[in-house]
Amino acid sequence: MMSETNHRRFLKSQPVPIYQIGNYLPSELVLNKQGETLQLDWIRNAPYSTIIFVMSKRCAACNYDAVEAFINKYPKFTYHMLIEGDEEYLNTIRNRFPEVPIAPCESILVQKELDFYGIPWMFGVNKVGQIVAGGLCSEFESMERQARPFINVFYQRAKSV
Fold first, then answer.
1. Three-class HEC string of 76-88
2. CATH number of domain containing 84
């Protein structure tokens, strides 16, 4: 006979990362199993806030048209992309976004290191490296929703002054 709580056993097998707004980015992010890293100290020198997209070639929901529209509408932000894919794919994305630094990564390692789950993902990071916003971002509207704290500060306030 099965107990009434027996169905819950599978829920305990895999801990799900808990993403927290307010966490700080590390000064160095491990990008792959070979130990290649990305220095993140440059965030402190960005004139405004920084938006970091995490995407993958294998991701059907990764919408580069929406990313392009977002970047064009909000050019004050500093942008960076962490993308999983082969060199040909990365070069295609680099050609599409020549002004955005793009680092190749293994998305599962980045997800574990930064405690988030799923892609496409975006982080909004302030000048001290604190994550102020973040979440899944497959459409332009979801990108605006995730970046709303920065949009309110750098764009809405400018309109009302």
1. CCEEEEEEECCHH
2. 3.40.30.10
